[in-house]
Design goal:
Elements (H helix, E strand, L loop, with lengths): L2 E6 L4 H14 L3 E5 L8 H14 L3 E4 L13 H13 L4 E5 H4 L2 H11 L5 E8 L7 H11 L4 E7 L7 H9 L5 E5 L4 H10 L3 E4 L14 H7 L10 E7 L7 H11 L4 E7 L4 H13 L5 E6 L4 H11 E4 L1 H6 L4 E4 L5 E4 L2 H13 L10 E5 L3 H13 L2 E6 L2 H11 L2 E4 L10 E4 L24 E4 L8 H8 L3 E3 L1 H17 L5 H15 L1
Parallel strand pairs: 1-2, 1-8, 2-3, 3-4, 4-5, 5-6, 6-7, 9-10, 9-11, 12-14, 15-16, 15-18, 16-17, 18-19, 19-20
Antiparallel strand pairs: 11-13, 13-14
Bound molecules: NADP nicotinamide-adenine-dinucleotide phosphate (NAP).
Length: 518
């Protein structure tokens, strides 16, 4: 069982009691006292703090972190040792000692003598703040050979998400209690997956301001955004693969839908930087670790074409539409890691458009459409429009890309400058122009919009872009990017789970998420 340990880094006992109360209210499952944060660290104060935690009934971990391993400040060596010794004698449930210090015969003899017949468990911790350890399995074994009763704690910085796999592997194979996860933004998901994979603790802060280490999440984030209380070894894991992913609405959206549908499932943001090499390594490793129990992935910038290539090589099924569009935004992982690949941007965009046309997409064959942009979103939309029979012209900053896309789908291509003379029934922005934070930008000059047009902006942050504001002023009918996002997410959820989510839940999360960002 994995406990959510809240790190309290108090200045003094008053500060400690305030933080302890908050930690309890938020549902802490254990308390780590970072005694190295005290203004005057001394063993008598620490005994008081241990008694304070005792009253809550929560397990207590006492740590006096060496400044060389992330401590808040320099605390005299003998003082640190005395704090740990007294914590053991006072019956703390766990004391955390740095492996490097425990190798010192003096430290070892004092700690071992104090442990004697006490019930306190010793955590021997190793940290690497620069990057991964050379071999975590050897490190794990060396800790146990030094002290077979110890609980190894192995924490390293992940400079890339792919550096977490050695830690996942260790958790899967460990035969004794172990604490292992990665620090940094690339390692953040490892703090959540630690529960699925059986780490003894995951550490959290009381709030986002008080993180005691890089990438540490708050109790609130873990519980509300990442369904901490419902994670167990059976939880099915889904996620978004992309870069960046930190501000994506998808984790909140999927986790809320899983909750509503009472599913034992979790959706995480997987920050995979790099190109197809890193993307393929990530998917290979995730699929290899069967204990992760994968359900599927959403795929976003910059990996949609890599996802198609990967699915062509390793997939059981690739939707022909995704091949036509040239990109995949949905990977469903079935039994034995089998992959099927789809693109739901197409249906999302077409459904969003028909919501404003009001009679499905069949009237599109009578219409002319101007598509601005020639990237992934444009490909899905051009495929949908040409399939429906619209006469499409593509305008793109890099004309050669517009030309290639137009040739592929039998459309016309124009340069970006030609937008000034554009005439069309439907105008669709498939560039990121107007997206937060450049919210005053618009992909078109003034004077080309009129009340007979339909204007669709795929940008969904902000909800109402500058382009849509101008379109409304001109009397045009408008479709925002959120409508496409919502509809593609509903289609994707159905592929993942086999049934549609409650549309009202999806709408609420998306609109709330985007309104709070406006
Ligand atoms: P992409 O493949 O990277 O393509 C980006 C396109 O935007 C390219 O055509 C690029 O032109 C053009 N572009 C970028 N910055 C520009 C600038 N400053 N001036 C002129 N053109 C510029 O990205 P994508 O996946 O197609 O995404 C494009 C937009 O669609 C994004 O805003 C994204 O948020 C949105 N989108 C929305 C949804 C939804 O569900 N609502 C789904 C997918 C995408 P060059 O070829 O010259 O580089």
């Amino acid at each position: 069982m994995t406990l959510l340990a809240v790190c309290i880094s108090p200045k003094d006992e008053k500060d400690f009691l305030e933080q302890l109360k908050l930690a309890q209210l938020q549902g802490a499952e254990a308390i780590e006292i970072r005694t190295d944060a005290l203004n005057d660290p001394d063993s008598e104060t620490v005994l008081e703090l241990i008694q304070d935690v005792r009253k809550t009934g929560l397990p207590v971990i006492v740590t006096c972190r060496d400044i060389r391993e992330g401590g808040f400040k320099h605390v005299d060596f003998s003082c640190r040792l005395e704090i740990l010794r007294k914590a053991i004698l006072a019956g703390a449930d766990y004391v955390d000692v740095e492996l490097s210090n425990f190798r010192h015969p003096d430290v070892q003899s004092v700690i071992k003598a104090a442990l004697g017949s006490s019930s306190t468990r010793l955590i021997l911790s190793a940290h690497n703040f620069e990057g991964p350890f050379q071999d975590v399995q050897i490190l794990y074994e060396s800790i146990l050979s030094l002290c077979p009763e110890a609980i190894p704690k192995i924490v390293s910085k992940a400079n890339h998400l792919n550096e977490c796999f050695a830690v996942f592997e260790l958790l899967v194979n460990a035969e004794t209690p172990l604490i292992a996860f990665c620090m940094g933004s690339s390692g953040q998901v490892s703090r959540i997956l630690a529960k699925k994979l059986g780490s003894l603790f995951t550490y959290a802060s009381i709030d986002e301001k008080n993180a005691a280490a890089a990438g540490q999440l708050s109790v609130g984030q873990l519980k509300k955004a990442y369904r901490w209380d419902s994670i167990n070894s059976e939880t099915e894991v889904f996620g978004l693969i992309g870069s960046p992913v930190a501000h994506s609405l998808s984790p909140a959206l999927y986790n809320a839908c899983f909750e509503k549908d009472h599913l034992n499932a979790l959706y995480l943001p997987f920050l995979v930087e790099g190109d197809i090499g890193e993307f393929s390594f990530f998917l290979d490793q995730m699929r290899r670790l069967k204990r992760l129990g994968l359900g599927g992935f959403s795929v976003t910038i910059p990996h949609k074409t890599s996802a198609l290539e990967y699915a062509k090589q390793h997939g059981e099924y690739v939707d022909p539409l995704a091949v036509t569009i040239g990109s995949v935004n949905t990977l469903k992982i079935g039994f034995n890691g089998l992959i099927s690949a789809y693109n739901t941007d197409y249906s999302g965009a077409m459904e969003a458009l028909s919501s404003v046309i009001g009679s499905g997409t069949h009237r599109l064959h009578q219409m002319t459409a101007a598509v601005i942009g020639a990237g992934g979103a444009a490909r899905a939309i051009v495929a949908g429009l040409t399939e429906a029979g619209s006469s499409v012209t593509i305008y793109n900053r890099t004309f050669s890309r517009a030309r290639r896309l137009a040739d592929e789908f039998g459309c016309k291509a124009e340069s970006f400058d030609a937008i000034a003379a554009l005439k069309a029934d439907i105008l669709i922005n498939c560039t990121s122009i107007g997206m937060y934070p450049q919210t005053k930008a618009s992909p078109i000059p003034d004077g080309i919009l009129n009340e007979n047009m339909i204007v669709f902006d795929t940008v969904y942050n902000p909800l109402e872009t500058e382009l849509l504001k101008k379109a409304k002023q001109a009397g045009a009918r408008v479709v925002n990017g959120a409508e496409m996002f919502i509809r593609q997410a509903i289609a994707q959820y159905k592929i993942f789970i086999g049934k549609e989510p409650q549309e009202s839940v999806v709408r609420q999360i998306v609109i709330e998420g985007l309104t709070s960002k406006d």
